[in-house]
Amino acid sequence: MVSRSQPTRARSPEAKRAREAAILDAAARLATVNGIRAVTLTDIAAEVGLHKSAMLRYFETREEIFLRLAAAGWVEWSREVRERLAALAPGAGGGDGGDSAHAANGADPEPGPRAAAGLLAETLVARPLFCDLLAHTPMTLEHNVSLDSVRSFKVIAIAEVVAVGEALRRVVALTPAQAGDVVATATAMAGALWQMAAPGTALRRLYESDPDLAHAVVDVAPRLTGILSALLRGYGADGAGRPADQVE
Amino acid sequence: MVSRSQPTRARSPEAKRAREAAILDAAARLATVNGIRAVTLTDIAAEVGLHKSAMLRYFETREEIFLRLAAAGWVEWSREVRERLAALAPGAGGGDGGDSAHAANGADPEPGPRAAAGLLAETLVARPLFCDLLAHTPMTLEHNVSLDSVRSFKVIAIAEVVAVGEALRRVVALTPAQAGDVVATATAMAGALWQMAAPGTALRRLYESDPDLAHAVVDVAPRLTGILSALLRGYGADGAGRPADQVE
C-alpha cells in the first residue's frame, strides 16, 4: 500500500525479494544469450524495466548480481550432481559403483570413477551459464563487490564443494581432501575449457578458420570427462594397499 | 641518426626492438609487484619513461603487452620444464622414471608420475607472474587485442604445450592427447589456484581472518602436485594392458 506513492520502489520484504529475483532472472537471460562479459548493469536494468539508479537499491554492481547467480548456480548444480551420484553408490540398485576397497584396487578399470567423471563433466557442460560464471568468478566477480558479498558467496560455494565431495566419496575411494580437489578441478577446468570453446566468439572463429589452430578447438565434454576419469582412477591407485579405514 | 630529430621515436629495427623489450620489462616488473590487474598502460609508460601516446607506437593496449609477456612466459617455462623432464627420462642417468611399459602397469607407485607432477607444479609455482598471466590470458588478454596478436600468441602457446607434452611422454606412458591435457590442466589449475591464493589480496586476508574460510586457504604447490600426480597415475592405469605401440 505504502509503495503506491513510489511505484518503482519495492517496500515490503516480499516485494524486495521478488524484485531481486526479477533482476537475477534478467541478468541470467542476457548472460545466457550474450555471455557474461557483454552484459552491463544498464542492460540488466533495461531488461527488467527499472532505471539504473533504481537497480542500485538492490545490487551495487553488475559483479554483485553475477556473484549471486554463481552462488545459485553452485547450489543448483550440486543438488543435481549429488542426486545422480547417489544413484551410482553401492546399494542404490542403479549401478555398480563398487565398494571402496574394490574401487581402490586400481588393477582393472572400474565403472565407478568413469561414471562419476562422466556425470561431473556432463552436468557442468549442460550448464553453459554456470561454466561462464565459474570462469568469471575468481577473476572478476571477487573484485567489484563488498567483502561481505564475497564472504557469503565463498561460504556457499565451499559448502557445496564439501557436499559434492561427500557424495563422490560414496562412489569412489577418496580422502575428503582428494574429493575436494576433484570438485575444484572439475569446476575450474569446466570454466577454463568453456572459455576456450565458447561458440560464437571471435576466438572460436579464429580457431576454426586457421589451419594452424583448427586442431586445438576444444570439445569440452569428452576432454573434461577424460581428465576427471584419469584423476579419479589415479586417486584410487594412490589408495591401493591402504586399509579402508585410512581412506578417510 | 635520423632519430635525433625525433628523440622519443626509435627508428631503426634494433632500436624499436630495444624499446619494446624495455616496455615488456617494465610491465613485468610492475605486474610482479602489484599483480597484472592493477597495472595500467599509463603506469607502464611512466615506468619506462615514455609518454602514453608514444607507447601506442609499440603496443596498442595493455592487454597486448601482457599477451606478449604470456607468450614469453610459455617459452621460458617450457624450456626449463623440458630440460628437467629430460633428466628424469630413462637413460638420462638421473633417475628411475621407468620405461613406458613399466610405468603403464599402475600396480605399484612409480616414481615417474610423482616426479613429473612435482616438477610441473614446482616450476609453475616458482613463476608467480606466469601464473598470474595464465589466469588472465583466457579471460582478458584475448579481448582487447587484435586477432593477429591472439593468433601469434596461440601458435606459440600450442607449440609449447606440444613440446612439453612430448617431453612428458618420455617419462610417463601417455598418448599425445593425454599429455596435452596434463599440460592444459597443470597450467589452468596453476592459474586458478594462484588466483585463489595470491598473497596480499583482500580475498586472501578475508580467508585468513574468517573462521569459516580459514580452512579453505590454498597452498598451491602441494595441492597442484597432488592433482597432477593422480592425473598422471590415472592415465598410466588407463593404459594398463595396452600394447606399448598403441600408447602413441
From TrEMBL, chains A, B:
<protein>
    <submittedName>
        <fullName>TetR family transcriptional regulator</fullName>
    </submittedName>
</protein>
<dbReference type="InterPro" id="IPR041483">
    <property type="entry name" value="TetR_C_34"/>
</dbReference>
<feature type="region of interest" description="Disordered">
    <location>
        <begin position="90"/>
        <end position="112"/>
    </location>
</feature>
<dbReference type="InterPro" id="IPR009057">
    <property type="entry name" value="Homeodomain-like_sf"/>
</dbReference>
<dbReference type="InterPro" id="IPR001647">
    <property type="entry name" value="HTH_TetR"/>
</dbReference>
<dbReference type="GO" id="GO:0000976">
    <property type="term" value="F:transcription cis-regulatory region binding"/>
</dbReference>
<feature type="DNA-binding region" description="H-T-H motif">
    <location>
        <begin position="40"/>
        <end position="59"/>
    </location>
</feature>
<dbReference type="Pfam" id="PF17929">
    <property type="entry name" value="TetR_C_34"/>
</dbReference>
<dbReference type="Pfam" id="PF00440">
    <property type="entry name" value="TetR_N"/>
</dbReference>
<dbReference type="GO" id="GO:0003700">
    <property type="term" value="F:DNA-binding transcription factor activity"/>
</dbReference>
<feature type="domain" description="HTH tetR-type">
    <location>
        <begin position="17"/>
        <end position="77"/>
    </location>
</feature>
<dbReference type="InterPro" id="IPR050109">
    <property type="entry name" value="HTH-type_TetR-like_transc_reg"/>
</dbReference>
<keyword id="KW-0238">DNA-binding</keyword>
